[in-house]
Amino acid sequence: MASLKRLSALLLICLNLFAPMHVGAAYVVSVSVDKAEYKPGDVVKITVKVQATAGEEPYGGNVDITVRDPDGKTVFHTVKIASSGNVQASFNLPSDAKPGTYTVVAIATEASGQPSGQTTFKVSGKKPKEVPTKGSCVIEIAVERDRVKKGEEIRVRGRLSPPARSLVRIVVERPDGKTNEISTESDEGGRFEASITANEVGRWAFQAMAPPTNEREGCESEKVFVWVKLDFTHLELSCDKNEVLAGEEVKFSGKVSPPVSGTVTLKYLRGTTWVKICSVEVEEDGSFSFVWETPSTPGVYQVRAFFPETSDYFGSESEIVRIKVLLPYPDLAVYSNDIIPLPNYPKTGDHVEFMVTIRNEGMVTAERADLFITMLFYVRQGSKLVPKNVFQTVSVGGVAPGEARTIWLSPGGPDFKIPEEAVGDMSVEVQIIPSEGTFDPNSENNRAKVDFPLKVELPDLVVTSFYPLFCQRDGETLVLKALITNSGDAPLEGEVQVSFLMEGRTIGTATLSFHGSGVPESQTAYLVISPKEKEEILPGLQPSFPSGSASFAKLSIPGPGTKIEVIVDPNNLVFEKSEDN
């Protein structure tokens, strides 16, 4: 009988080991893993197949997957939806995974009878070898000059980050395609430098490399390039006259040094763009010349010559040559720096006059023109700023070519004053309107505008000093004293409330009366703190001698009734009790 029981137990064990597929009413579940044995830290890939039987449709319900270690402890669990009966899952074994046999069980939870399947895999006792991680590094290089004359030194500087002493290899690619290396060493700050003689015309490339160490990986820089040629060229340019009438010709001449064959291009600046005038060939001695018919539009033209790079020489640019093109008729101009107010810093309540200078930049006398000046400012009405303007028109005549004439203007008339309610900036614009004779229709200089900040005189209260006093023999009553000074531009008449704050809360207030007697004017605010109040404000502290501090913000006070705060620092206000007191 005992033998029969042992045989039954053996058969049961064999069934568990060699029958991983479990059959439900209509589905069979099989489980497999990608390897038979793993190491701690490995990834385990699980495949579950739920096969339909008896003509059932492919299974599309949930599959519950559980992995247990040799002690029966769950190390992984997931629920996935099958796609045509197939499910895949993966997980990482812990780095301290226990060696032994692990069991994987999968259950088709939505199939009749919840069929299941299982498999096993082993985990060896060997942990994966830990590869020590190294720090990264960055190496950067730059050249002192990217254009070098043949025979000169090319200097390369760089830095290694994080800073460290290290060997540095600089790979040099020469114009002929050959490479060579320069070896150097970085200092404690990671800085290094090297140099090489530029003995070949063409493009040179440089790249720095730092080898790996036990603490960090190796690194290499981006490439930097240097162009080497036989020499730099120098370009000279001049003209026979700098002031001409529109349409007249100007002769330009110049020279390329050393003499190099090629083409010089002449351009003038329009806005921010260089506009081509013409191109001329360079003579054997490096000289060139050309004649330019000036445009019909007046103005100052900036002309420059450009010589391009050749295979052996660097290109160059000449200095700018300025040509003033004038019109054969009057051209009155006004500029913003020619509009000067008096007083120089106007404020509300002032009468302002303007000294305006106009200039005839044309070739003919301006017989007559009108100057129209507008002064714009803003006044506050309630919560809105409303624009206001005043103006004046005067006539001028007989302004000769090249003459600069000064005119005094008073917009609004001789009795007008800037309103007290005006705020912000004041804008002044002067426009020249021709009334007789022929004027330049394309003139852009007949109008100028300038803004002036209005100076507003206001009181400005500041806490100029603060200190505590101790009264009575017992030293219990505390008096705080703050000197408030009006150091603004205008006197203040009226009451000002002073609040004494400590650690964000008000410990008392005082009211001061300013009499408007002048600037500066000072008043002293006192705050008396009784023993009971002091105990509430500074519990348990017995000051032995007076000291204190206050922090404050400088406040612009537009009028009486404004509050000012004195922030009292309790850490500086009192000290520990003295044994000598």
Keywords for this entry:
Immunoglobulin-like; mainly beta; 5% helix; 55% strand; 6-stranded mixed beta sheet; 581 residues; 5 domains
SSE order and pairing:
Blueprint lengths: L1 H17 L3 E2 L3 E7 L3 E2 L4 E10 L9 E7 L5 E8 L4 E7 L7 E9 L7 E8 L14 E6 L3 E3 L3 E9 L4 E8 L5 E8 L4 E7 L4 E9 L8 E2 L3 E6 L1 E2 L1 E6 L3 E3 L3 E9 L5 E8 L2 E9 L5 E7 L5 E9 L5 E2 L1 E2 L3 E6 L5 E2 L5 E4 L10 E8 L5 E16 L2 E16 L4 E6 L12 E15 L10 E7 L6 E12 L5 E10 L6 E10 L2 E11 L5 E9 L1 H7 L12 E2 L3 E2 L6 E6 L1 H4 L8
Parallel strand pairs: 3-9, 11-18, 19-27, 21-29, 40-45
Antiparallel strand pairs: 1-2, 2-4, 4-7, 5-6, 5-8, 8-9, 10-12, 12-15, 13-14, 13-16, 16-17, 16-18, 20-22, 22-25, 23-24, 23-26, 26-28, 26-29, 30-32, 31-32, 32-35, 33-34, 33-36, 36-37, 38-39, 38-44, 39-42, 40-41, 43-45
Overview of the molecule:
It is a single chain. The protein has 581 residues and is mainly beta. It has 5 domains: 19-123, Macroglobulin (MG2) domain (Immunoglobulin-like, Sandwich); 138-229, Immunoglobulin-like (Sandwich); 232-326, Immunoglobulins (Immunoglobulin-like); 332-453, Immunoglobulin-like (Sandwich); 460-573. Strands 11, 13, 14, 16, 17 and 18 form a 6-stranded mixed beta sheet that branches. The protein starts with a helix and ends in an 8-residue tail after the last helix.
